[in-house]
Amino acid sequence: MDLPSNKWIVHLLVCCFVVGVNCNSVDKKIYVKLNYTVSCVRLLNATHQIGCQSSLSGNVGVLHVLESEDNLDWVLSSGPNPPYMVILESPLFTRSVMMKLKSGSSRVAGVAVVAPNTNPAGAFSPHTTCPNENSGVYSETYDPAMANCNKTVWNPLGNGLSYEEFDFPIFSLKDDNDTQVIRQCYLDHNRAVNGSRPRYPLCAMQLYSLMFAVTDTATCMRRNDINLSINPEMVCDPLGDYNVWASTRPLNNTAKGHKMWESAVVAAARLDSRSFFFDIAPGAQSGVSGFVALLAAAHALRDVVQEAPPNRTILYTFFQGETFDYIGSSRMVYDMENNQFAVDLDNIHSVLEVGQVGLRNDSKLWLHTDPVSRRNDSVNKEVEDLIANLRLAATNLSVTPEVPTASQPLPPSSFQRFLRARPIPGVVLEDHQSAFTSRFYESMYDNAEYLNVSYPPNLTPEEQLRFVTESAKALTEVATLVARALYRQAGGAETQLVNINADSQTVTQMLYGFLVRTNNSWFQQLIPSDFMSHLTNRPPNLYVGAVQQSSEPTVLVQFLMANLTGSTVNVTQENCQNQREDENDKESRHMYIYMWVQGAVPPNSTQRQGFCVRSTARLSKAVSPAFDLREFTSKDYSTWTESRWKPISGRIFLVASHELEMLTLGVGVGVLLTSLLLTYVISAKADILFSSGREPTNATY
């Protein structure tokens, strides 16, 4: 290729680059992209679908900031520029407003909810009034009088919004600069003044959250099985994750099923939560308070179970997906029934579950039991013994265990799935006697602020991490109670109880990590280096999510459990990662899990000193058995799936009047036609227009 040709190529590339840059610049001048967009997504079960979605190209509407519920008439009937993209301040994000918008959805393009920086004064729970009512133990066959929350409505503040279907997108926006730009755009262009009609151009918003799955779980799973290409498109995934479990005595995890002479006390807590928006599920009261208390209790028992081992094994279990019809607990019970777990149901002696324990208004904790199974004399005796152990454990503590006076069913709890299999003695520990004390059950406001995890001003993140809050002190008392009761229930000596005390420093660090920011110096020490990128400057999202890999909360709880209950062993990093003590060790992997964690940075050094932790903290599958059995319409197991979606985004821009758009289109078409006509004329007359006198071929100079 000659030099002139190369120059032309270079010029062409430069022109393409300039055009691309100019296009990008024009895009930025037209659109303001929203940086923080969290959407409501579509979920499906055996019978129907819930959630939200946009159209194929995204929903576009004229911005309208709803100032009061009385102002809804502008959106639903009188406003001259539908469809509208409604901006809601948090006090207006109620069932009443949302159902009115749903009924007028032909004039509603979408909704954006401005999440406040502080919690509202009132109550907000988008969950139902009777959580998991069709998947627990209380049915028409078990006890009709207690089915469907007939005796106790556990969540009376629930408005059920999370279980409604909306045919438009609903986003959550942070109250930050983006939100200020949206408000200002509305004030400058869209707000009607003195009853006058807003004049063009108007401020508009586009929200994009296209969901792939429709109808129900059976439909979407059937579409998953249709393979019409090399890379088939999946439309939905089962909800699920992994349970975390550990035991005070090592159990051979390779030999599944019944263990002779083994008797285990199950200590349970749930790991997950949810809210209306899939990526904001802090779960402070509904999840964190319970599993932090159980983690601290396990830590308090680490030394005493080695020095004075009780007769029975304590089996710590942290269940995932309990919000969605007890995914994790139903899977563990199913595995126990089918010899797919380290022990079976015959090995289970009793259950102590730690539920919502973070909002004690007084010194009382309530001991909930199942009145139906207690009709069996042997079960009733074991339950009475467990209650007595809990009362004994409270000696010299500021916590008073109480039994509800009225006969009532168990609150929503993982223990119910064990009772569905067989009558097992058990107690569920809660901070409420009947209805939940939480005003924000399963909502985005169930956060650190609601649990009163707060710090004095001007503390650095490191100082906040180590500051023992009042909430941490109260939860430490609960953890001590749980630890002592578990030890006695497992057959430990009463004389050892005084030596069992939870550590408030450990509790406060866990609360900080799970409710403020996971990226802190303590969590960094307890994890492998390849998990560092998962730590963030915000609390983890406790929504269980779709089955793909273990979630951040699951992994963190496993590593915490390993570090808090395990021991440091002097082995090389290679042997540790290969699950062995040395090259000849073939047995330890069946009994223990080995984890190489990165450790702390010593003073005057920049390199962390890693070490190997040996523990019994393992993961087990937390996916509904319905998907293994391919029973997508099952009434016995959870059938919840999550739709897959295109990238979720939002942006605002100015939109011209319809008349101006038509005029612009007409002018554009006219210019196009004129250009085509001129091109045709010039092409037809090219010989005349571009002819020039030619010199004869034999001309010489």
UniProtKB/TrEMBL annotation:
Compartments in which it is found: Membrane
Transmembrane segments: 662-682
GO cellular component, one term: plasma membrane
InterPro entries, alphabetized: Ncstrn_small, Nicastrin
Domain of life: Eukaryota
One of the GO BP terms on file: Notch signaling pathway
Protein name per Swiss-Prot or TrEMBL: Nicastrin
Source species: Scophthalmus maximus
